[in-house]
Amino acid sequence: MSKIRIGIIGSGGTGTRHAEKFSEMETVEVIAIASRNAETGNTLAEKHGAEFIPDWHALVQRDNIDGVVICTHNDTHAEIALAAFRCDKHIFMEYPLARSIDAGEAVVEAAQSNQRILRINHSETVSNSHRAIKQKVEGLGDLLLTTFLRLTPGRGTRPEILFNLPVSGPPAHFFIYHIYPIIDLFGGVRSVEGSAVYEGLTDQGNYNRFVNTVNVEFKNGGLGSWVWAGGVEIQESEQHARYVLTGGTISDSGGRWHCSTGAGIEEIPPVDAPSISLQERWIQEIQTQDTSAADRDAATALKAIRVSLSAEQSMQEKRRIVLE
């Protein structure tokens, strides 16, 4: 079987990790690296025997590339993906799917109409732990409440990008990887209300510290209340999640998941199944041309950004947003 030829856009930490992962696969050849940073782009390309291309537009137009890996800022994901789909490329992109709901819808539609594989890097789609939680949830009745709290002292390695509203969106959006698994478990939401406090907010949209809350009503019943706080005074990051259902409560503790009922508490171990990375899944799907699972997961990613970006709209308009 011939190798799948890929090009990677972005030469920062994420692009470097993906280049390492794909280079380890016998069925993949890294053809080119595109980056605005000539120094890191050239270094990464040389390391993997690839060509450095300064302009991503030229990379997606290459006939000798089958798939494009997008590792750029949040506000560029959709533009690059749409251009790549027009060139008949498969896409693996970092989350979030897009910086606007309209752009996200356009990307998902383009993947389906062109019958290309679109994978957003939400690892729950291949996580045996998430599969176990999903199986447990199915036997616990109706959802009553989901709660989530994350406190972090840090501002990331690139705070000028991460703590930047125009580029990365509100915290609920760049923490979309917390929203995605909840949507995958319990479905889409009917309404969203968000609020946020940004310390040191500039006219350009940069800030130093934040608290972001999102409250949702699920279409299938139940409520969600989620909080993120970053750059706060705490020794180390803390994160707590709970799913309260009519038949029991699922919670995380020390990186492990448990189910609590009136009869006691039991750990939820990962499903006993072979593990596969999402990068490997994407390559397999390109080889088989089976878009069904990728289309389903992309639809979940779209539902997730509808929540985070409707929360942003709610903050701007100071009202609850009802989703169609």
Helix content: 25-40%
What sort of overall outline do the alpha carbons produce when their principal axes are compared? globular
* pLDDT < 50 stretches: none
Query: What is the CATH H-level superfamily of the largest domain?
Result: Dihydrodipicolinate Reductase, domain 2
What is the oligomeric state here?
single chain
**By helix and strand content, what is the structural category?**
alpha/beta
The main β sheet shows up as:
9 strands, mixed
Number of strands: 15
Strand order of the largest sheet: 14-13-12-11-7-10-9-8-15
* N-to-C series of helices and strands: EHEHEHEHEHEHEHHHHEEEEEEEHHE
> Per CATH, which architecture of the largest domain?
2-Layer Sandwich
Domain count: 2
